[in-house]
Write a structure and sequence with these properties.
about 120 residues; seven-stranded mixed sheet; four-stranded antiparallel sheet
């Protein structure tokens, strides 16, 4: 599985951005997004299962970010609204082959895309 992420950029606080991640190859069970700010560890943002029926979010983004996965596609989008300066980070798309009870642990993901930088600043 190869992952290709796109959509980062510079946005003002309160603005919106949409990230996309296209997976080639076998359909992953779970796809998600992590982010890493300068000097910080990579942290979980959101994930969605293969069916698109189950979604998972970090508390810090609930109500502001929406992850989606159109049926029949291997593309995942992350719609980010009401962006804050603390959302500034490199965002990474990730995918996992297997079902596991957890979704937030980076080491449990099998595939990673290249990062895309999101900068929230006035």
């Amino acid at each position: 599985v190869q992952l290709q992420a796109s959509g980062g950029g510079l946005v003002q606080p309160g603005g919106s951005l949409r990230l996309s991640c296209a997976a080639s190859g076998r359909t992953p069970y779970l796809m998600g997004w992590f982010r890493q700010a300068p000097g910080k560890e990579r942290g979980f943002v959101a994930a969605i299962d293969w069916s698109g029926d189950s979604t998972f979010y970090a508390d810090s983004v609930k109500g502001r970010f929406t992850i989606s996965r159109p049926s029949g596609t291997n593309t995942v989008s992350l719609q980010m609204n009401s962006l804050k300066p603390e959302d500034t980070a490199v965002y990474y798309c990730a995918a996992r082959r297997r079902y596991l009870a957890t979704q937030t642990i980076a080491d449990e993901y099998d595939y990673w895309g290249q990062g895309t930088l999101v900068t929230v600043s006035s």
